[in-house]
Structures are given as C-alpha cells and as structure tokens.
Amino acid sequence: MRYRSTLRTIALVLTVLALSVPGAVHAKKKKKEQDNYASAYDIYKQGMREIQQDDLRQAQAMLEKITYAPDNREELEPLVRLRMADATFYQSYGVALIDARSLYLDFVALYGNHPAAPYAQLQAGVCSLGQVVHPSRDQSQTNQAIADLRVVGQRWPNSMFVNAARTMIRQAEHNLAEHSFTVGKFYMKRKAPMAAIQRFQEILDRFPDWRDREKLYYYLGQAQLRAGNDVEARIYLDKLVTDFPHGQFRKGAMKALNKAGGPLEDLDMTGSTVPGSSE
Predict the structure, then answer these.
(1) 73-87 tens-digit pLDDT
(2) Residue 164: which of 128, 125, 209 has the closest Cα?
(3) What digits encode the pLDDT tens for the residues 119-154?
C-alpha cells in the first residue's frame, strides 16, 4: 500500500516523542524501579527494531514478553499495544488487516487522549481501505474506511494526521466513483442507458471533483444519446469539449455532438435548432 512506508516513519517518530517522556518522569525513581523499567523498555526497543527489519512475528513475540510494573504500565502499555497493532498491520494480508483494525480501534477506545490516538484512528481507516481489492468489487470497506478517516478530523482537528486522513478520503471517494462508473459502463453494454445515466449522474452528485470527469462527461453524453435525450447529451459533451480541449475524449465527443445536432450554442432554450445554425 502506497501509504505504508510514510505511516511507518510517522509511527517511529511518534514512538521517539512518546518515549522521551518516561525518561524524564522516572529520572528520580529508586534504582530498583529504574532497572525494572529499563528491562521492559529494552524489550520494547528490541520489538521496535524487529518491526523496522520486517521481522513482524518476532516483533510480536518480543512485545508479548513485556511485563509491566506499577511504575511503568501507564506510559509503556499504550506504546506496546500500538506497536502490536503495527506489527499486525504490516503483515498486510486480509485477516491481518481485520485484526489490526480491531487493535487500533481498541487503542483509541482505551487511550483516546494519548498523542498517538489520531494515528491509531488513521490506521484503522487504512486497514479498511486495504481490504478493497479493486474499485470494481464490493465497496463496503471503502465506505467503512471513509467513516474511520473522517473521525480523525472530527475528533482531533489539530492533529498532524488530519491531512493524511483527507488525502486517503479522496482516494476512497475515487474508488467509490470508479465503482459506480464501472457499473454504468456495464449497463451501457447491456443496452440499458437509463440505468447507466443513473449511475453516472450519481457520481456527479456525490463526487463533483472526481479527477476522471472527462471520461464521465463522455459516457454520460453517450448514454443520454442512446436514451434519446439529445439536448441533455449535448450539455455534457459540450462541457467536455470546453473543459478538456486537449483531452483524449474530445474527438469522440465532437463526433457525438454532430450526431446530437451540433454544439450547445446552436440550441435555443427550448431545445430547438436556432435559425441559421449548421443544421
């Protein structure tokens, strides 16, 4: 997944920041307490090294060895839980992503005020998004991912992870739009233009900034033509020619416009041909 390496770097930075606090807090502890903490901390650091080296199962085994004492549980246990979630996440296969999402959400539920809570919430969304095989397949996990990712900005609006969440939401929305587009094309092949129009129009209504609007205008115009809606067809085809003058669909759009009676300026408000036009 394209975001994984970036998120791993962020996770490690978070760890360094978080672990700088316990050192100061425990500076005045008794030597026995310090040794006890150091032992757990050393195991934690070894687990982190295993994650960095992609030895994820070994990392899990190391982290599971950690035993907490009253003086270190509050600060160390959240970090261990988070790294266990990361070690599961980086295994990447389907069940691992399901398990990792559950671990991340458990972290948020238990430690909602922890500095790493927005990261865990972000990762829950990434886990859902990672389960989507292709835009043509079922998109229930895409919708779940969007819901997970929106929580980051809603709950922690000043978090460093808000922009990453927004970027992933845009990617998830692109998947949803691509799914509807694929279904629309299927209806076109089945000679069901009205069903295709419904799918294409849904994209315009829900995702007006979809990055593939050029091809959407083209296929929506073609579907309207096949449905006998020449005026509506001309609206979308004309918009394609205007907005994407050098686009790959321009030539096809111009041919379709000629079939529909020419460019949009040749119509009056009732859809009749303007006298003196090329028709």
Answers:
(1) 888 899 989 998 998
(2) 125
(3) 999 999 999 988 876 666 778 888 999 999 999 999
Report residue 257 as tokens.
Answer: 């416009």
* C-alpha closest to that of 226 among 188, 199, 253: 188
Residue 182 corresponds to which tokens in the numbers above? Answer: 């694929």
Phi, psi of 273 (to 5 degrees): -70, 135
Report which of 275, 279, 278, 212 is spatially closest to residue 249, judged by C-alpha positions: 212
**Which phi and psi (to 5°) does residue 179 adopt?**
-65, -50
Residue type, 262: G
In this structure, the dihedral spanned by the alpha carbons of residues 233, 238, 243 and 249, taken in order and rounded to 10 degrees, is 70
Q: How far apart are CA 101 and CA 118, in angstroms?
A: 13
In DSSP notation, 190-207 reads TT-HHHHHHHHHHHHHH-
Instruction: Give residue limits of the domains in the chain.
Output: 1-131
CA distance 126 to 222: 36
Both tokens of residue 75?
């600060």
Which DSSP state fits 272?
Answer: P
32 contacts: CB under 8 Å, gap ≥ 6 = none
